[in-house]
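Tutorial, part two.
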Amino acid sequence: MSRPRAFDIDAATEQAMQVFWQSGYAAASMADLYAATGLKPGSVYAAFGDKERLFQRAFETYAAHFRATLPQGLTGLAAIEAWLGVQADLSVADPERKGCLIVNTVAERHAHSARTHAMAQARMDEIRAFFRTALDQAAAAGELRPDADPDLWADSLTGTVVSLMTLGRAGAEERTIRNVATAALAGLPRA
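Running the prediction step on this input gives:
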């Protein structure tokens, strides 16, 4: 009969997530993960299996945090404006300038298995779907010109989020990050 866990697996996942987010998957050593979680190697392997599965669990924990940033009760252009504002705020407010674990994972794709890469791509698709839905709502509400291409703008706005998070990780000035968000919103084909 196995012993019950003597630690909070969700707290350990959050701590591991911070290591992966700051360092990236490839640069995060198991020693770093043991130190951050306070767990011994046997406990990490018993709870998570291996580094990749620990990363995948941490990644899904991050994805839940990401989903919580999506605007509630807003639709159309108001939802887009609100979420780009949140992304710019997150990009500049983090003193460690970690960027976005989703974007960081996509950029570090060579270090990941096909399954982990597919998880990251699914989150990118989720970001694009948010924009596509909001653009469809904006079009239906008459907020966009009739000739506005929602696929083009969903791709462009997804690229804007990637840019905001990458600029944040790169340590860009707040003015630059906010200008990118402002320019993306100004370029929308409003009615």
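The chain has a mean pLDDT of 95. In part three we will examine how such features are distributed along the chain.
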